[in-house]
């Protein structure tokens, strides 16, 4: 029985899973140092002596991967020269398949599925790399690997460029390696990071369309055929612009543009199905229309004023009970552009909110109140018309879910602030006869100072 070849005393090469690339072959190996028995991918550069291109590829990939630690970038385990094989090697974490395998099935994806599963993590990895001044420069389906759980990982930094250490001579040796249509048509890299932005745009088009684009002339046509929100379409159009100066400046800029557009699209979708059904009390309507006491308010005018004020981004929070000093989850406060209103759930129609009071507030007052409230983008369709029970309850659920999370976040922040304060070395815990803990300032000589801090709601343990 022939003994298995072991690379660097650690990686036992297996006979299966051979992948051949332009300048290397990839073999699956057993990582004997891993207690979980994990596999590794061993990239073996072609056996050629004194080949400056191979040396450049090896140096580029290892130098890049040593700096990159990101959940969506393939981890490098080891690298070096294997004397027995007479070849350079790079050991990477083993990932079963690539996007190329999935793209071969030619199954188009929706934008929502693509961005959630592939686009968001991938652009995050590129943004991280660009933040370290590292460009990938060969973004294509075969270089996006997918774990068994479907997590995408960016691989193969063989022709990466590190902007802070540009080497013109070395760049010349790898300039001819291109992957059409994923590499842009320009033959130079005068605009930094533009190549990766173009590659991401083409990759998105290919996955969204099921691989319809085979060359540059097809890109614009494929984009026009896709069912996309106008915001997303405009961003992808800029990504694949043949003028690199018109593309997003780098992956970080592109990431923020995509996140902003995705939020807008998500808000729009939520607003279609989530309504907050309102009913005005006479007192609130009178305050809004400023009619004299005893005079019937102009109900339609009052409704229009409130709907106009709450139509965009608003700030919301639960009420506060001044007597108990506790949050009042039965009251919801909403601040629009000018009006501050208090809502309660209708006791007869639980899917409806009653506007208990409304007051026009100055900008300074509103600004102070907004500091601690939850900023709510236009995800709700505020209405005084019955939208139907399902849509009304969906609006309530959306609002309450976000308020509950905001409340929990504030409580967690307050708890952490208390922990930091009580962890001050100048504070010592002194037993309290009433069973709790009183925190007193104690000096280095154990003499108590004059300051005393109460428990302040932090649970004694």
UniProtKB/TrEMBL annotation:
PROSITE patterns reported for this sequence: PROTEIN_KINASE_DOM, PROTEIN_KINASE_ST
Alphabetical UniProt keywords: ATP-binding, Kinase, Nucleotide-binding, Serine/threonine-protein kinase, Transferase
Gene3D superfamilies named in the record: Transferase(Phosphotransferase) domain 1
Enzyme Commission number(s) from the entry: 2.7.11.1
Enzyme class: transferase
Annotated signal sequence range: none
InterPro entries noted in UniProt: Kinase-like_dom_sf, Prot_kinase_dom, Ser/Thr_kinase_AS
One GO MF term attached to the UniProt entry: ATP binding
Record carries keyword ATP-binding: yes
Pfam families: Pkinase
Acyltransferase recorded as keyword: no
Domain Protein kinase: 12-259
Transmembrane segment boundaries: none
Protein name (record): non-specific serine/threonine protein kinase
């Amino acid at each position: 029985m022939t003994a298995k070849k072991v690379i660097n005393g650690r990686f036992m090469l297996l006979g299966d899973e051979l992948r051949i690339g332009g300048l290397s072959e990839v073999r699956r190996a057993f990582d004997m140092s891993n207690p979980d028995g994990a596999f590794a991918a061993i990239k073996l550069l072609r056996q050629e002596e004194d080949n400056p291109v191979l040396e450049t590829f090896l140096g580029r990939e290892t130098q890049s991967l040593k700096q990159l630690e990101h959940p969506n970038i393939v981890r490098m385990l080891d690298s070096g020269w294997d004397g027995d094989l007479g070849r350079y090697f790079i050991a990477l974490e083993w990932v079963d398949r690539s996007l190329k395998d999935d793209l071969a099935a030619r199954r188009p994806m929706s934008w929502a599925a693509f961005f959630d599963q592939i686009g968001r993590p991938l652009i995050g990895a590129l943004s991280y790399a660009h933040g370290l001044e590292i460009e990938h420069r060969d973004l294509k389906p075969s270089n996006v690997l997918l774990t068994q759980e479907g997590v995408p990982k960016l691989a193969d930094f063989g022709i990466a460029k590190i902007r802070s250490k540009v080497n013109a001579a070395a760049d010349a040796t790898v300039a001819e390696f291109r992957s059409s249509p994923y590499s842009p048509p320009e033959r130079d890299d005068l605009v930094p990071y533009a190549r990766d932005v173009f590659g991401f745009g083409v990759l998105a088009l290919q996955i969204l369309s099921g691989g319809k684009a085979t060359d540059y002339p097809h890109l614009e046509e494929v984009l026009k055929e896709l069912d996309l929100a106008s915001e997303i379409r405009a961003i992808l159009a800029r990504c694949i612009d043949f003028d690199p100066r018109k593309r997003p400046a780098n992956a970080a800029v592109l990431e923020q543009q995509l996140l902003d557009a995705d939020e807008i699209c998500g808000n729009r979708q939520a607003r279609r199905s989530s309504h907050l059904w309102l009913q005005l009390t006479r007192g609130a309507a009178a305050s809004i229309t400023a009619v004299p006491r005893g005079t019937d308010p102009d109900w339609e005018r009052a409704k229009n004023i409130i709907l106009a004020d709450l139509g965009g981004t608003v700030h919301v929070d639960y009420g506060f009970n001044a007597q108990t000093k506790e949050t009042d989850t039965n009251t919801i406060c909403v601040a629009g552009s000018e009006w501050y209103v208090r809502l309660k759930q209708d006791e007869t129609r639980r899917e409806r909110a009653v506007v208990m009071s409304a007051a026009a507030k100055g900008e300074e007052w509103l600004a102070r109140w907004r500091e601690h409230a939850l900023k709510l983008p236009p995800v709700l369709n505020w209405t005084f018309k019955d939208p139907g029970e399902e849509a009304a309850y969906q609006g309530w659920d959306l609002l309450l879910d976000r308020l509950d999370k905001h409340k929990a976040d504030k409580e967690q922040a307050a708890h952490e602030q208390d922990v930091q304060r009580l962890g001050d070395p100048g504070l010592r815990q002194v037993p309290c006869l009433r069973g709790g803990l009183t925190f007193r300032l104690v000096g280095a000589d154990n003499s108590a100072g004059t300051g005393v801090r109460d428990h302040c709601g932090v649970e004694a343990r």
